[in-house]
Amino acid sequence: MNKGTHVRQASWEEMYELAKQYAQTHGNLAVPGDYQVEGKRLGAWIGTQRGDYKGKTNPCFTKEREEKLRAIGMIWDVREWEFQTMVQALEEYRRTFGDVRVPQSYVTPEGRKLGIWVNRIRLSRRQGTLSPEQEKIFDGMGMVWEPQQQRQEQWTVCFELVKEYAAARGRLPPAGYVTGEGIKLGLWLNNQKQNIKKGTLSRERKQKLDQLNIPADHHQQGWDSQFELLKAHALRCGSLGWSRGAQQRLSEPLSNWLSRQRKAYQMGELEKERIQRLEEIGMVWDVREELWESMYRQAREFYQTHGHLQVPAGEGPYLQDPDKPTKLSTEQQIVVMDKLLECAEVNLRTLCDLIRYQQLKDAGVVNSVGEFLRLVHPDDVRDVPKEDAD
User: Domain residue spans in the chain?
Assistant: First the structure.
């Protein structure tokens, strides 16, 4: 009995030393779930320690072990650690650029998608899922929660200044004119002229500029009207990403228009002003990537908690409809694993199966999806002929 206990203790100590070396090398213990070193699954071991810490059910996980892990920077709550890491990245952005209005496409030098993350923070606040403590952090950094509203206020100030200038001098300000407060009013007016030509101004703004006798191109009104419809949809549904329910509420013309904006963006043909306006209402340019990233995050969290990807049937949210979970048939799972990004009805278990299938196939253990299903889920395929399963 003592000998067995000694062997287990030595194994834990060995893994602890590997974790300590990882922390010294990488500066943290954010170990990927599939990370291995010297043939040992350090990522899975770290996940097990987190589970033991939270569950308080493993008698071998003593206070001494907890303190030793804490001493080398153990991350007990991965989500909180990731949140704080991104907050630090946002603070670094503020120190560099002077504000926290991060473009959606911005990626930090470390590869973190800070722009997308800031957009998600705004969406969380809009949906009421951002805690008061978290909101206070962002308020202290000068977060603009409704950037479009702020831009509207700035636009109105400049318009009124132009009206005052024209009333006093009988003409519009020249391109290089700057007010006593440092507002580049001439440049602003020139930008409005360019926006009129591009058709990127709202109907309300065009009507105001008509007071200044700046001709508007009324043939470009279509884009603005479609944008307003999309904005209303985003406010109602909370997202412009993948969601079956949300997509069903999009009219066919608006859905087609949205697809054209994404295509123009991918081809580099969408004007910068339009890109900015779409991103401010939560535009998702690559819906397939968002879907995959969402499912991958769920799989990673499961792996970090449990140390494996053997997800029980029905585990995790279903992208199809969170309120009405359904199970995929064996045939559907085969289709999903072959065409993951083309299939909208995929759950967390299926994604994990996909990852495990690829690992087993690379190792030469299985050669087809049918073999994988018969190996991993024999009860699900016992009535399916081999030729159908393959």
Answer: 2-71, 78-140, 147-216, 220-285, 288-389
Query: How far, in Å, are 19, 57, 75, 307, 356 from residue 51 at the CA level?
Result: 16, 9, 12, 9, 22
Spatial contact of 353 and 337, defined as CB atoms under 8 Å apart: yes
Using left for φ > 0, alpha for ψ between -120 and 50, and beta otherwise, residue 58 falls in beta
Residue 27 burial class via C-beta count within 10 angstroms: exposed 0-12, middle 13-18, buried 19 and up: exposed
Nearest to 37 by CA among 23, 49, 27: 23
Q: Which amino acid is at 18?
A: L
295: tokens are: 């499912």
pTM score, two decimals?
0.40
Spatial CA neighbour of 304 closest among 30, 70, 57, 111 = 30
Which one-letter amino acid corresponds to residue 80?
Answer: E
Q: What pLDDT, in 10s, does the model give residues 138-182?
A: 999 888 887 766 667 788 888 888 888 888 887 888 878 888 878
**Alpha-carbon distances, residue 156 vs 207, 270, 274 (angstroms):** 13, 26, 19
